[in-house]
Amino acid sequence: MKKQTKPKLSERLRAWDAGSFDLTASIDPDPPVPTVEHDVRQEDLPPLVSLSERETRGFRRLYPVLAAALSAVLVAFLLSAVLALPPYGAADNPPHNEVMERYVSQGLDETGAVNTVAGVILDYRAFDTLGESHVLYTAATAVMILLLAAGGGREEPPSVRRIMEGDPILRGTARVQVPVILLFGVYVILNGHLGPGGGFAGGAILGGGLILYVIAFGFEPLERIVSGRVFRVGIASALCFYSAAKCYSFFCGANHLETIFRNGTPGAILSAGLILPLNVAVGLIVALTMYGFYSMFQRGRV
Amino acid sequence: MSFAANLPLFSVVGCLLASAVSAVLRAKPAAWVTRILAALVAAASVPVLLLGLKTGTAVTYTMGHFPAPWGNELRFGILEPLVSGIFALVLLACVVGGDRELKRDIEPAKQNLYFVMVDLVLAALLALLYTNDLFTGYVFIEICTIAACGILMIRQLGRTTLAAVRYMIFSLIGSGLFMLGIVFLYSLTGHLLMPNLKTAVAALWASGESRTPLLTAMCLITLGLCIKSGLFPFHFWMPDTYGYSTPCSAGILSGLVTKGYIFLLIKIIRCVFGVEVFYASGIQSVLYVLGVAGMVVGSISAIRVNDVFRMIAFSSAAQIGYIFMGVGLSPELGTAAALFHILTHAITKPALFLSASRLSEASGGRKRFKALQGAAHRNPTAGAAFAVGCLSMIGVPLTMGFIAKYLFAFAAFRENRLLVPTLLALAISTVLNTFYFARTLIRVYNTRGVTPVPPVRLRTQPGYAFAAILLTAENVVCGILAQPLIEMLTKGLSVL
I want to staple B85 with a disulfide (CB 3.0 to 4.6 A). Which of B34, B45, B99, B312 is the partner? Predict the structure, then answer.
């Protein structure tokens, strides 16, 4: 019987370097056919040193112990730091300073928004929120890159189809609920500057409503309204409007010019300057992104 | 206010608009949008730089009608437009120079999405450079992280996916720690705006109260950015990330994204912690030690690998080590040297990745050293650009790499701090660098045992030729006429 030679230390190190505990091998036994002609050649990949189960036993036993120990040290370190922070909610905490003071006392006058939170995120600190909505857009594009299937997507898995075709309770409930959910989403978006709500919350409600609808009735009926093209153009134009409008307002603010937007009467639906249109744009982005995620995961296209 | 002061805002918003528009365009127009955008951003940074040089102070630009700390704010002097201009030029070179590989590596239906992501990376980098608010920095770090993952995983090979997952985990840990650090700082001081934070941190440090949470916040922010920029021992995501992504992505990630985080760290050290506090905290010593360790370990790993892309990737780990060594060395000359090396590496590494890709293409798509024998004769342009890049990384005079190493040594001498270890580290690292870069150079220029084939002509690869000439020219010009650049960096550092 031939004795199996143990890999040398240098080979093991190289295997470690090359990340050769190749996880993808065990996840995907039948890898998809590469659509790219010019593929990486096998011999150009670093050699895989196959370590037997016995040989990695030490590593596999030691690793959780070391990881737990490291985490415990970090937790202790961070907790001790947290304990030394000013007590939560105390009246004289550092964050209770002139920044918060002005938001609370003058927010209504300066932004026209009854909802101070909307005033802060869409007027005082609008640049941060411009970034945040682009975070969503970046994530949506990343999901598209990952899941957009070649050749125009695929049908939904049969298990999902069975549920939606044969379930009267789901369809009946959805028929009653979806219009109410969508209407409530629109209300939350449009009411964002007057009360709790806004584009992020209302958009999530709208997106949830759309997802419930396609679970119950399939993608086909909705496709007549929200097709792939509408999805892309909708998100792109909402983002463009957001960026352009805010750029105009930043430019005017920095150069001490008056903008064409007026604060109006606080409490009226058409008030608070740019906040209402921006809420609509954000709501559109969030709703389409959520629906797009679901569609991408379900069938590889929007 | 001078009109030039509006240009940073227009650059950032222009990138965001371009990314949104590219989503509905086809691949070819989207590519042109990105190219024109990068060129415009580079051009727009010139008046801003001239403004900074003329006034010699930093401009504070209110984003909207509310002054900071209530609203958001940009702040830029000399460094920010200088770095952003060079970053935009390098991005342009990557996108143009890697055009053929992009078509090869990415499915046709997704090619426009690639340019969406590149526009977003540029927007995020610009915002990281220009911001004067820690939280805005965090928001654009998020965009940068996700977009970087996007341009990485768009090449869907098994190994690239694995690399993207690893990169994402490292990068998210880094973002999370950074965020925690901001939370600590906010609870302690109640501010997010950099100048206010600096005053509050200095007062808190002088009073000696809450020392533990303050140090924790500083550690968390520094650690988060170190992980994201790949400082030793957090560089394990690098070889796979750069080795298996499309060369354009490898260039953007290694040359720009990691550098954006380091620039932000330098800005935070100056404008949030304050130099006195940071250099009294002891964190800089840790950065110095890890930097030196990275210089040596990265180079040794680069010697051991057998694949030209992975070699360049490990060399990146070593170069990041240089930068952090400079930051740890001293706040003035050391950090100025680190800034110079940021630019050196941003210009050299993409050139190396793009050239290595063309050399490997001329060798039948193989990346092993053996297959690259004589590759420089099969594609002379790529060979020449590769040679200049290698010489710059070794630190041969007339290139930026030489000036960078000279500045590190000069900083150690002038400030008479850590003289022996710095010189020793530079010497050892240079020897190791020479070992693997010279070995590769000899390999690609040696024709022994290779049947000659007609060389690839310049005009059959216009995009790559443009990128190679642009990057090589920047490298050599900045390497010969380094004095004005160094003066701008030192002056910029003082008004940061």
Answer: B45
